[in-house]
Design a protein that fits this description.
Strand content: 5-15%
Number of helices: 18
Distance between the termini: 46 Å
Oligomer: single chain
Helix content: 55-70%
Largest sheet: 7 strands, antiparallel
Number of domains: 2
CATH superfamily of the largest domain: MFS general substrate transporter like domains
Shape: globular
Number of strands: 15
Length: about 575
């Protein structure tokens, strides 16, 4: 058995027992939502662990292009819940929205399993073309140049020249190619597979738009406003999210990088199908929560009698074409984020001026401030699937104490730490709450920002221990994820809970969607930061590991220091900000 799988089983067994015991004091519906979201996160994080490698190693997109696609996709994943939340509030109800979103996700993840033929990297010199040949997969993946039916390695020389190792040279091709004497191009990129990829991502985006804000809203609906079980309940729910994500990174990452991309993505699809089955089967345990406010009314349409519910489903499917275009256009997604932010903030401002009381308005203002802080946090935290994932692959020694990993499996560090720490944090918040000694939400957010910054500075410090291969010992990446995890536990489950507390009953899903808008901005801004770490690659392999490491160190140091500075500022402001909650803990 793979060592990381054995470790995962031990962690799951040891942490699930105390978690399971805590469910006895919570509504039965929490268990249904726990398992449904666990499988949904299994599918999402299984795919996410592989996506940046799929783009750069299968389709051979350069770093900046791949980061742009990745950022557009992940931004839309968190932007579209604005629509899904409002539609659930006004028409569908949260239960039907979640079920519909889950079906779309099943389709999207299974479409990801179609990979087509890999692209081919070509070097052209003196009007002659030479193929690069890829052998092996995952951590054993190697790229060599093919010259006269023989394979040779390559490495960088000073001034950007390319050295062909072990090659004696000829009149047609010397052993040292000057920087501007050769060109690199990509051929054989499977257009059908590329189109299927963007369609699959579109299905996933649309599915998340209906599922993500509404399943979190359902958790909040299980509890009364001031129920002391609410925060512990959200933390248990968050444990379920990370249980799915933990195993997704281990299993989907292993299959995707050793067996084939189709295997990793296909397993993610099976996980999502399991999530849909659990939710439909367990819906009666929700005891009527999440149902629409009024029954659907049939109206005549060009295809016959049609009610609002089925009209929403039909228009959503038609919207896949728009998403297919947007996921390929990073800048346009940025404009949409700006427009969506202006629209939703204007809507909330209008409500504060016309229908909300002063206290309700103050709480909405506090929620918006917390959302801004969350944007900063997640901009850095979500480097995990992009720049940190590539850092693991390119500049990290992927073995420790005899255990070797695939780069995508390092995504399990964050979620593994959460499995261990989430029950402890849940008990801590409950303990402090009973004694009225809990930290305010703004203070927790400030601690989270400092910790995410420290995580990046750990990697900066660890760079001095890199060997001749310019790879940082794995322990430093683990420590970075540990800081990020403790920061996440100060902000994510607490933030979800705060949105449901601070919102009026009619705005729960809408404000939850605004919370996810913060993540949409974070993903888009995060892709801009990830692009700063871009380096030259050949067939998905870094040409100059030393330059790659130096780039990562510079970027990680800058963002780490900025995060700590903003966190310290928020800490001092937190004493005044907590007054805007008007008694809500």
């Amino acid at each position: 058995m793979n060592s990381i799988i054995l470790i995962g089983l031990v962690i799951t067994f040891l942490t699930l027992i105390p978690v399971w015991r805590q469910f006895k004091s919570h509504p039965r519906g929490l268990l249904v939502l726990f398992f449904a979201e666990m499988w949904e996160r299994f599918s999402y994080y299984g795919m996410r662990a592989l996506l940046i490698f799929y783009l750069t190693q299968h389709f051979l997109f350069d770093d900046e292009t791949a980061q742009g696609f990745y950022g557009s996709y992940t931004s839309l994943v968190y932007l579209t819940p604005l629509i899904g939340g409002i539609l659930a509030d006004r028409y569908l109800g949260t239960r039907k929205a979640v079920a519909f979103g889950a079906l779309l996700l099943v389709a999207g993840h299974f479409l990801m399993a179609y990979e087509g033929k890999p692209a081919q990297q070509i070097l052209t010199y003196n009007n002659q073309s030479y193929d690069f040949v890829v052998t092996g997969r995952g951590s054993s993946r190697a790229v060599q140049i093919k010259i006269s039916d023989k394979l040779y390695g390559f490495s960088p020389d000073k001034d950007g020249a390319l050295l062909i190792n072990g090659y004696e040279g000829s009149e047609q091709l010397p052993t040292r190619l000057e920087k501007d004497s050769y060109s690199l191009s990509v051929t054989g990129r499977d257009q059908t597979a590329q189109n299927v990829l963007f369609l699959a991502l579109s299905f996933i985006i649309l599915g998340v738009s209906f599922l993500k804000p509404n399943i979190s809203s359902l958790v909040g609906q299980l509890y009364e406003k001031n129920d002391p079980r609410r925060d512990p309940g959200f933390t248990l729910y968050y444990y379920g999210i990370n249980l799915g994500a933990f195993w997704a990174s281990i299993l989907c990452g292993l299959l995707g990088q050793t067996v084939g991309w189709w295997a990793g993505f296909g397993l993610a699809g099976i996980g999502m199908l399991a999530g849909w089955v659990v939710f439909v089967w367990g819906a009666p345990m929700l005891e009527g929560r999440g149902e629409p406010n009024e029954p659907a009314i049939l109206k005549q349409s060009f295809i016959g009698p049609l009610n609002k519910e089925w009209g929403i489903y039909l228009l959503s499917i038609l919207g896949l074409g728009l998403l297919w275009l947007l996921v390929q256009r990073h800048e346009v997604v940025g404009y949409l984020l700006m427009a969506g932010s202006i629209l939703i903030l204007s809507y909330l401002a209008y409500l504060m001026m016309t229908s909300l009381t002063k206290i309700e308005s103050h709480r909405i203002i506090l929620a918006i401030i917390l959302i801004f802080a969350a944007t900063v946090f997640f901009t850095l935290f979500e480097q995990a699937g992009s720049s940190l994932n590539q850092f693991a692959n390119r500049n990290t020694e992927l073995s420790l104490a005899g255990i070797s990993l695939q780069a995508s499996q390092t995504q399990s560090f964050n979620t593994g730490f959460i499995l261990i720490l989430a029950p402890i944090f849940s008990a801590l918040w409950a303990f402090l709450g009973r004694r009225d000694r809990d930290f305010s939400a703004p203070m927790k957010f400030s601690f989270a920002l400092v910790q995410v910054g420290l995580g990046f500075l750990v990697l900066v410090y660890g760079a001095q221990f890199a060997g001749d291969d310019h790879k940082v010992p794995l322990i430093f990446l683990m420590l970075a994820y540990l800081f990020h995890t403790t920061g996440e536990l100060f902000i994510s489950p607490v933030g979800l809970s705060q949105m449901t507390k601070l919102a009026t009953a009619s705005l729960i899903s809408t404000l939850m969607a605004v919370w996810f808008l913060a993540s949409a901005w974070a993903q888009w801004l995060g892709s801009i930061i990830a692009k700063l770490t871009a380096t030259k690659t050949i067939a998905g392999q870094v040409l100059d590991p030393a330059a790659s490491l130096a780039t990562y160190v510079k970027v990680f140091q800058d963002i780490g220091l900025y995060a700590i500075g903003i966190g310290i500022l928020l800490f001092f402001l937190s004493f005044a900000l907590k007054k805007l909650a008007h008694g809500i803990k």
